[in-house]
Amino acid sequence: MATNTAGTASTGTKVRMTHAPIVSPADTPNFLDNEFVPSKATHWIPVYDPATNNLVTRVPQSTAEELSMAENWDRLAASITLEQGKTFNDARGDVLRGLQVAETACGITTQLPGEVLEVARDMETRSYREPLGVVAAICPFNFPAMIPLWCIPIAVVTGNTLILKPSERDPGAALILAELAREAGLPNGVLNIVHGAVDTVNFIIDEPAIRAISFVGSNRAGEYIYSRGSANGKRVQANLGAKNHAVLLPDADKETALNAIAGAAFGAAGQRSLVEKARKLVVSAGFEKDADVGPVISPESRRRIESLIARAEREGASILLDGRGCKPEKYPQGNFVAPTVITNVNTNMACYKEEIFGPVLVCISVQTLEEAVGLLNANEYGNGASIFTKSGSSASYFQKNIEAGQVGINVAIPVPLPMFSFTGNKKSIAGGGANTFYGKPGLAFYTQQKTVTSLWRRENVHSGKQVVMPSHL
Description:
- The chain is an alpha/beta fold.
- It folds into three domains: about 1-70, no CATH class; about 85-240 and about 430-455, Aldehyde Dehydrogenase, Chain A, domain 1, CATH 3.40.605; about 245-410, Aldehyde Dehydrogenase, Chain A, domain 2, CATH 3.40.309.
- The chain contains 13 helices and 18 strands.
- One of its GO terms (cellular component) is mitochondrion.
- It comes from Penicillium chrysogenum.
- This is Methylmalonate-semialdehyde dehydrogenase.
């Protein structure tokens, strides 16, 4: 006897426990935007009951439109491109580096078990970590998905609730993350998004219920948050400004090194040399498929970058490649600065001292590796530093003597994967680097260690016979 049930074996409301043929088997739908949605596919993959080889359902080869609906990675990236200006590929990288933290957090609870030791007769000491309770994160504009994802997974997996304030200049990615967290089953009240500027920050700093604050941003804001937050008895992890140096030695593989440096400086991928190819980089809006360099976030940012280039020129530097006044034909009203290369720079110039936040590469010539290391160590920032060389001895010298939290050897941006911690040094991280992001230090930051010592004397053990009957079944 032929029978039929609503839906497929996986989506129907009834449990099918018969091998009888199914009349007009239902096609397997997509699950998009929290709903079962019939596919518009033109190609289908049949699924058969192995016991009878009767058709059970058809699985769609989902259309490109359906696949893109399911791709929250692209949805997040699109929000970043629209609000922050990054090229779409660069925005996808922003999301990826954050997702790596989320992925690591899924298995990081193996690092949370406590310890126990019998320290004397009948006495033991236990040590374990407990959640802080309510914690907060204040995020910058330049990584709208990555920095929230530095905080959300680690704060939540350690048992806390989180108040997150995205940058008021590009909040969209954080809101999408909150929506996805809700769909994933995060309980109500665990993740909260608030908006605003100084008043919101001051509330977070002063609110007694908030036990810890994570911050990424400028030194001015970060030092204020660290000082006032610490004075209020809060833990504060604050990653601050940076001037990330790359040392290029004569023996380096020039093609590889210059490609890496150009990619790091201008946000462009592919086979690029430093100045010659930088001229060929396409400056355009982030959704344009051929765009290598997108706009900066605001007219104020563009004016600041261009003023630093002009000041470098006044101070005696050479503008080898000038990106000021860039107006792409399709987007003449945009906040564009084209790739810029400044040479003949010294360490007293503003373009060297200040974090530029734009596609500007500053070049300084030195005579020896020792001089290069001394120059880097004299800089007040110590976020990251790289060396490009074929010499293991030179690399070893650099690694041991450089004062930077993150060191790259033939790697332009030495940000570690999240099983390690995002470290810093000097003025690039508040509090001397005691509180860093994700990895084992991130777990420690979001938890409070508790030590319990107990004494249960063995002579107090009740040794008499005892019968306990159940009072109910």
